[in-house]
Specification:
- The structure is a single chain.
- The protein is of the alpha/beta class.
- It folds into 2 domains: about 140 residues, Carbamoyl-phosphate synthase small subunit, N-terminal domain (Glucose Oxidase, domain 1, 3-Layer(bba) Sandwich); about 210 residues, Class I glutamine amidotransferase (GATase) domain (Rossmann fold, 3-Layer(aba) Sandwich), CATH 3.40.50.
- The chain contains 11 helices and 19 strands.
- It has a 10-stranded mixed β-sheet, with helices on both faces. Strands 1-2-8-6-4-3-9 form a 7-stranded mixed beta barrel. A two-stranded parallel sheet has the order 5-7.
- A hairpin with a 4-residue loop joins β1 and β2.
- This is Carbamoyl phosphate synthase small chain.
- Composed of two chains; the small (or glutamine) chain promotes the hydrolysis of glutamine to ammonia, which is used by the large (or ammonia) chain to synthesize carbamoyl phosphate. Tetramer of heterodimers (alpha,beta)4.
- It catalyses: L-glutamine + H2O = L-glutamate + NH4(+); hydrogencarbonate + L-glutamine + 2 ATP + H2O = carbamoyl phosphate + L-glutamate + 2 ADP + phosphate + 2 H(+).
Amino acid sequence: MKERIATEAILLLEDGKIYRGKSLGRIGTSSGELCFNTGMTGYQEIFTDPSYYGQIVITTVPHVGNYGVVRKEVESEQVQIKGLVCKEFSEFFSRNSAEGSLQEYFERANIIGICEIDTRELVRHIRDKGAMNAIISSDEADIKILQEKLAETPSMDGLELASKVSTNEVYDLAAPNKQYKVAILDLGVKKNILNNFTQRGCECKVFPFDTSFEEMEKWGPDGYFISNGPGDPAATTQAVENVTKMLEQEKPLFGICMGHQILAQANGISTYKMHNGHRGLNHPVKNLLTGKCEVTSQNHGFAVDAEQVKNNQKVEITHVNLNDGTIEGIRVKDKPAFSVQYHPESSPGPHDSAYLFDEFIQLIKQRKGEA
């Protein structure tokens, strides 16, 4: 691969702070909410995670691109981020199994980014000031023009984005040794979540984000799963209505990330936008039911209201974040329904929380009289 000549690039933050570096990916301009991920590996999984739709990602690991890309490490069919900010961007890769470079991958996906800036200082700034919108440009140097374009970027607060990443058509995923049927409400589901179900003998039927409960129920599922997804969960009102009806059926229900927030709303608990979200592979969570600590992978900028959970007679707290005390898991006391804010299916890891899929299967077995 011939080394490219990187052009100058600008990163302009909503509060007026400016960073200048070198371009990566396509030449152009892109804006979105700026956030950072503390994971040391798994950049391709991050870039293809639908929950990142509408966001510019800062990677805190200093080297990105050094092990290339491979098809099997995607979490969706396309790159979902709006841009990348990193310290060192490598066009060359050393992994023998890599199918290409990250630069080529970004060029095909029309992704714009900036590198060779002080990401450590930038992350500290975002950590202190809070999440904010930003714009990256490698083809426009006029700050006034960039400020005008940035002003047009919508706030993530109140923004519905599940419709941008959900499947347009219902599709099926077969399972070896099929035993159960799980209906998936796709708000931006990750591939490895589906893999965890099929590996456990669950045939999955994946439904678009706005599918009615009645349409999903026609399939006769043994249980329901509410997926992760981007945007403000409070704006995803159709999903809340669906989950409310699912709870009335008393079939097992499991939610991850946005699915967790939707389950909370279906029980009268509101959500809020965090000062800074949780994004990385190293977040400590305590399981209050077992007393054990789990190292978890997370990606969310909204959370459920802790006081409302504590005062809700229908819901029990099952997991808490050991860094900031936020709610990481709940279950409905008189229903076979539970959810977690983090990602038990995380790829490449950690895998401390994979047991949650088994607990969901156990609920299905109990309802069917098999356990």
